[in-house]
Amino acid sequence: MPENPVRLPVSLAAALSLLLASPAFADALVENVDGMTLDEKGDVVRFNGIVIGSDGKIVKLLKRGDKRPERPEWKEDLKGRTVIPGMIDGHGHVMELGFRALALDLSATSSLAEAQAAIHRYALENATRPWLTGGGWNQEAWKLGRFPTAADLDTATGDKPTWLVRADGHAGWANSAAMKAAGITAASKSPPGGRIELVAGKPGGVFIDAAMSLIEKALPKPTPRDRNAAFIKAQDILLATGVTASADMGTTLDDWMTYRRMGDLGILRMRIMSYGAGVDTALTVGGSGPTPWLYGDKLRMGGIKLVADGALGSRGAWLKAPYADAPGNVGLPFLSDAQLLNMIARGAMDDFQLAIHAIGDRANQQVLDAIDEVSDTYNGDRRWRIEHAQIVDPADLPRFGKHGIIASMQPVHQTSDRVMAEARVGPARLAGAYAWKTMLANKVRLAFGSDYPVESPNPFAGWAAAFTRQDAQGQPFGGWRPEEAVSREQAWRAFTIDAAYAGFAEKLFGRLAPGLRADFVVVDRDPLLASPTELRGTVVLETWVGGERVYQRGRTERREGEGR
C-alpha cells in the first residue's frame, strides 16, 4: 500500500493501523468455536466453525462432522471460545457517547457534594478551556429533592462558563457565567417545548428540553478534529462492549460528515443505521429518499428522528394527567397534532422511516393517533418506530400491534427509572409502563437498545434486565412488575434480529447465517447458561465485523500506549 502523504492524528493512525492488521478478505475459516445464534424463528442454532467469503459474508456455519475448506486463505483458531452474533443497539447516540467520554462525566456521582468536588477538579485540570462541558448528572441519584442551581455550580467553577447535560440528555445545568455569556436574564422566557427552571422568580440554572438551546447557542462549536476524536472514542467503546451495529438517533449534518470522513479513511469499523435529526436533515443528506448503504454496509441514513415530548426525570414527558409529584404539570408536548402529521407526511412521502420519541402516555397516544391517520396514505412496509414507549395507557397498548409498529425500548431504563417513575406518576398509573411482554403478546416487534450515553451501552446488562426486571444489585427481589419480563431468548432476539429488522437491515446482519455479514463477538462465557449476574459481567474478548477482527481485548490499549 503506498504511503499516505497526509499526516493523520495519532488516534486516527492507531485506528487505521488496527484495521490494516486484520486478515485480508478471502475465503477463510474461523474454527474451533462454541458458536450460537438464533434463526429467523428465534430458535437457537449451534455451530463450531464459520466459513467466510471474500466479501465478508458467511458462506456456511459448520457443525461437528462437516467438511472444512481444504485450503482456506487464512484460518483462525478461537480455541473453543464462545461466539455469538454481534449485538445491535436499537437506540443510541454515537457522537454524544464520544463527546461525553472525552468530557466531564458525572454519572458515577451519588451526591451534589461529590459532583461539586469532581467538577472543581475538572475545572482545575482544564483551566485553559473557554468553557467546561460534560454531563451525566442526575438529581434523583443524588437524592437532592430538587434540581441543582447555578449557585451550586458557581461554588465549583467560579467565573468559568460551564454547561453540564443531565443523564437523560433532556436538561442542562448552567452556572452564572454561562447564563451571562448566553444573554440569559430575569426577563428570559421559556420557549415552546422547553422550560427554564426558576429560583425566586429568576432563571435558576437548569434548562429543560427546548430551553437548552438558549445556552447551547453560546457554546464553542466542536472542530472537525474534535468530532473525529469523539467518533473514534465512541466506536472503541461500542466495539469493546460487543456492539457491532447501532441505530444513531438524531444524526446531525456534522455527525453525518464525521461518519463520511471516517468511512473515506477506512476507519469506520462499526455499522450505523442513521436517523436524521428532523426532516430537513434527512432531505439534505438523502435528497429524494434514504441513502444507499455505504462502505460495505456500514452506513446508511434511512430514517428521520422526531421528538414528541421530553423525559420523565426532568418532568418533560407528556402525561395524560399531572405528575404525582408536581401537581398541575403534565410535561412538555413538543409538537401539535398538525405539526406531527406534517412532519410524518414529509418524511414518508420520500420513503424515509419515521422514528418518534414518545415517553409519556399522552405523547404515545399522540403518536399512535398520527400513525393511524397516515397509514392508509403511506402504506406498505413502513416499520413505524416509537422510541422508548415507556409510560403507556393500558388502553393504548393493543394499538401498537397495528400498522407494523416497532416498539424501540431500553430495558436498562426500567431498572434505572423504576423508583423515580413511581414518584413521578404514582404506582396506580404504571400498569402500561415498560410493558415488554405485553408488546410481544400484541404481536409487536421489540427492538432493544440502551439509549447511550444516557445509560451504559453494555448490551449484556440490558439483556439481563430484560428477563429479570432487576438491576445489577438484584433489586427488587423477584423483579419490578415481573409479569412484563420476557424470556432470555426473546431478549436476545430484540438485541439482534429485531434490532436489525427495525432498521431495515435484517437481510444484511443481526444473526449468523449464510449470506449475512460475518459480524460476531467472542465472549468469555455462554450467555444462555450464565446467571443474570454472570451475564452482566460478560467480557468481550474479540469483536469481528464483516469477517475482520476490529477489536481484541488488550490490543487497543497497548497500541494507544505505543502511539504516545
Your description of this structure?
By secondary structure, this protein is α/β, with parallel strands linked by helices. Helix content is 30%, strand content 23%. The protein contains 18 helices and 21 strands. The protein has helices at residues 10-20, 94-102, 112-125, 150-157, 176-181, 213-216, 224-240, 253-265, 279-286, 337-348, 361-374, 411-425, 436-441, 459-468, 488-494, 497-501, 532-536, 555-562, and strands at 28-38, 44-52, 58-62, 74-85, 87-92, 104-105, 132-137, 162-166, 171-174, 194-199, 202-209, 243-251, 271-277, 299-307, 353-358, 385-388, 406-409, 445-448, 520-523, 540-545, 548-552. The strands form three sheets. The chain has an eight-stranded parallel beta sheet with strand order 5-12-13-14-15-16-17-18. Strand 7 (132-137), helix 4 (150-157) and strand 8 form a beta-alpha-beta unit. Residues 1-7, 20-26 and 557-564 have low confidence and may be disordered.
Descriptive keywords:
30% helix, 564 residues, disordered N terminus, alpha/beta, eight-stranded parallel beta sheet, globular, seven-stranded mixed beta sheet, 18 helices
